[in-house]
Design brief:
Distance between the termini: 42 Å
CATH class: Alpha Beta
CATH architecture: 4-Layer Sandwich
Radius of gyration: 17 Å
Strand order of the largest sheet: 1-2-3-4-5-6-7
Number of domains: 1
Helix content: 25-40%
CATH topology: Metallo-beta-lactamase, Chain A
Number of strands: 13
Structural class: alpha/beta
Shape: globular
Amino acid sequence: MTLYPHGSLSFIDDGLFVVEGRWRRSPFERKMTVFRLASGEIALHSAIAMDEAGMTALEAIGRPAWILVPNSGHFSDASWYGERYPSARVLVPASARVKLFEKIRRIDGSLDEDWPEALHGELAVVPLDGTRIGEVALVHGPSRTLVLTDAVFNYSGRDLPLFARWFMRANRAYGRFGPSRIFTSLVVQNRDAFLASIDALLEHDFDRVIMSHGRMLDSGGKDAIRDAFAI
């Protein structure tokens, strides 16, 4: 397994941690969000394989029990975690399971159907229906945080190298919080189903928004999501 550059495990809020890293030669950063559950277990969203110092810090906050693959594009390090922690369950979006079947060595179930009901108060799973990538949103109750993957971006200033900045401006994903042009025109294949999912997402209590690519939105997340998708 090739380890790519990554930062340290950063505390964000009650039971909420983030690791930022890179993937291959991509100019875009990626994030792993770590949820520490009341049971002492931890759930990993969009897993990033780390060096031994990083893994020691991770294991110090809890036992990795859930490897959560949030869409069909963010799966690269899930198998590494699945092999390191055989008792952990690897869950993928139900609508992306066929796409991921040959890409992940072990799939133990779907986020939609196999996330324990007892944990929904801590970490709610909200499938974003109508997308080609099967994206699933997560809402962390204790910290009132929404975690998304590719549904929104939040870049500004000099967050990216010049060419990547130009590309994201053309993609309508720079200098604003919201979905990219590619996401709304190519990834969303059933607009009505997708917007119904956003409506369901807005019924949850959240203020902060973490996305895989771009700056975390510390507050005002519900209004930002409503405005971004014109709900």
